């Protein structure tokens, strides 16, 4: 019975290795689709180009995973790359000062005032910080009233503008928030349809006076290709520390996030997902990455296949062990595979029905470093020694020990372990062995191999 299984597994594995690597043709076809997906998600042209180039380099030559089309596998690589770009920096807000000053900037209608109320609400209710708000938006009288109403409705301290001069307003707010013992002062600013001189000069004035710990640019998800130049203009005027993305509910593609992050390296802190005060969430890079690609299903499919692939490689090793041709080369492969799958305990989690052994091993405090030592020892053996360990006598053992930086008794221990494994494998081929293991594991938990 076991022999049949062995042949079957080996067959599958051979089919797999014949498939080889991702070809340039696979890559071209898929990356063309990815390019369209990026542009449709409003990732800026320059960023899309750069990304495609990076991904091209990464994907070429990667091994093909069985049951997955190369195209699908490339999508996974793209998604990983996007997640990395979107999430490679921590998004903790800076609360070092008291009060910590947060400046919010952005174009008119981007969602600054709404986001300020949301952020204040989040800081008060989730982070237990006290917040004061002030508005410097003197251009639209309704803008100050908007913030005042939002503050009152949500029990947030509102500081009345002290005059018609932004410098005076900011200075007074700094003093007052300090007296109020606020943890945070958030300053609202006025926006424009585009980044004109006047807007930027005013922002610079406020920035230099307030010296904010956070300068957050509020970006509308729907702003499209314009995003890069807006980010650049603001960042040059008053160095940003991060972004808040709004209207992700209206435009769930999120390409703007990628452009902004890629261009500056600064984190996207939060996103707005509606008009209510609680429609505000901490930004999760992986979710946005699959949104941008619009191919979330493919990503999880490939992830699953990757796991199956590791399982297959494992089964192939088992097959080799049981075929009686087991030698040191096989043992080395086994150790390497073990390490790849997260050491001994990781390896166990791939095998169904071995919960008992796993907890036994954990209790026994298995030293994962031993695997590294054993790998080093086998690597110091010649090809002949690996295929026929019987020839290993004292002088060879000494050479191997010094070659691998280990002791002779460790070489001996490895050889003993090898013999034991081999013996166990031989027994496994005898009828009734499966039942023995079954009893050992308790009942019907025998690992099954399809
Ligand atoms: N659907 C949706 N609407 C939003 C979001 N953020 C802001 N808005 C709306 O966008 C409009 C402009 O927002 P506002 O905060 O006044 O923009 P400001 O000019 O930058 O201060 C308001 O009607 C908000 O309710 C969001 O995340 N989702
Ligand atoms: Mg406003």
Describe this structure in words.
The protein has 450 residues and is an alpha/beta fold. It folds into three domains: 16-89 and 290-322, Four Helix Bundle (Hemerythrin (Met), subunit A); 100-282, P-loop containing nucleotide triphosphate hydrolases (Rossmann fold), CATH 3.40.50; 328-441, Signal recognition particle, SRP54 subunit, M-domain (434 Repressor (Amino-terminal Domain)). Helix content is 59%, strand content 8%. It has helices at residues 2-19, 24-40, 45-59, 70-87, 112-125, 141-153, 166-179, 197-210, 227-237, 255-264, 285-293, 296-322, 328-340, 343-349, 355-363, 369-379, 383-387, 394-404, 408-429, 433-441, and strands at residues 100-105, 131-135, 157-158, 184-188, 214-220, 242-246, 268-272, 280-282. The chain has an eight-stranded mixed β-sheet with strand order 3-2-4-1-5-6-7-8, with helices on both faces. α3 packs across α4 (70-87) and α9 (227-237) packs parallel to α10. Residues 1-18, 347-358 and 437-450 have low confidence and may be disordered. Guanosine-5'-diphosphate is lined by residues 106, 108-114, 191, 218, 246-247, 249-250, 272-275, 279.
């Amino acid at each position: 019975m076991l022999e049949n299984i062995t042949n079957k597994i080996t067959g599958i594995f051979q089919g797999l290795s014949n498939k080889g690597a991702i070809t340039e043709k696979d890559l071209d076809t898929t990356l063309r689709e990815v390019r369209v997906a990026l542009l449709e998600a409003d990732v800026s042209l320059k960023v899309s180009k750069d990304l495609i180039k990076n991904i091209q380099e990464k994907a070429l030559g990667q091994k093909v995973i069985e049951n997955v089309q190369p195209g699908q596998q490339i999508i996974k690589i793209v998604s990983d790359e996007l997640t990395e770009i979107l999430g490679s920096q921590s998004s903790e807000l800076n609360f070092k000062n008291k009060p910590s000053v947060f400046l919010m900037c952005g174009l008119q209608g981007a969602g600054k005032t709404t986001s300020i109320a949301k952020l204040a609400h989040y800081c008060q209710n989730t982070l237990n910080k006290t917040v004061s708000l002030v508005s410097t938006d003197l251009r639209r009288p309704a803008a100050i009233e908007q913030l005042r109403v939002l503050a009152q409705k949500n029990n947030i301290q509102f500081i009345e503008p002290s005059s018609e001069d932004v410098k005076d307003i900011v200075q007074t707010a700094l003093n007052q928030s300090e007296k109020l013992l606020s943890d945070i002062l958030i300053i609202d600013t006025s926006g424009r349809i585009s980044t004109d001189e006047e807007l930027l000069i005013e922002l610079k004035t406020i920035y230099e006076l307030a010296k904010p710990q956070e300068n957050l640019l509020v970006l509308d998800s729907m702003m499209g290709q314009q995003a890069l130049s807006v980010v650049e203009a603001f960042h040059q005027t008053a160095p940003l520390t991060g972004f808040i993305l709004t209207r992700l509910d209206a435009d769930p593609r999120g390409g703007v996030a990628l452009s902004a992050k890629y261009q500056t390296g600064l984190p996207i802190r939060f996103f707005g997902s509606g008009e209510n005060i609680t429609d505000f969430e901490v930004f999760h890079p992986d979710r946005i990455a699959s949104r941008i690609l619009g191919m979330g299903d493919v990503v999880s499919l490939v992830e699953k296949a990757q796991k199956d692939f590791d399982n297959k490689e494992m089964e192939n090793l088992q097959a080799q062990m049981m075929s009686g041709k087991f030698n040191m080369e096989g043992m080395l492969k086994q150790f390497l595979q073990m390490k790849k799958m997260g050491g001994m305990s990781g390896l166990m989690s791939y095998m169904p029905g071995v919960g008992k052994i796993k907890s036994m091993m954990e209790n026994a405090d298995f030293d994962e470093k031993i695997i590294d030592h054993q790998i080093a020892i086998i690597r110091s053996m010649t090809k002949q020694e690996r295929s026929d360990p019987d020839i290993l006598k004292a002088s060879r053992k000494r050479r191997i020990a010094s070659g691998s930086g280990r002791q002779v008794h460790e070489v001996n221990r490895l050889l003993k372990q090898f013999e034991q494994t081999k013996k166990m494998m031989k027994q496994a081929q005898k009828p009734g062995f499966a039942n023995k293991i079954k009893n050992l594991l308790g009942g019907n938990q025998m690992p099954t191999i399809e």
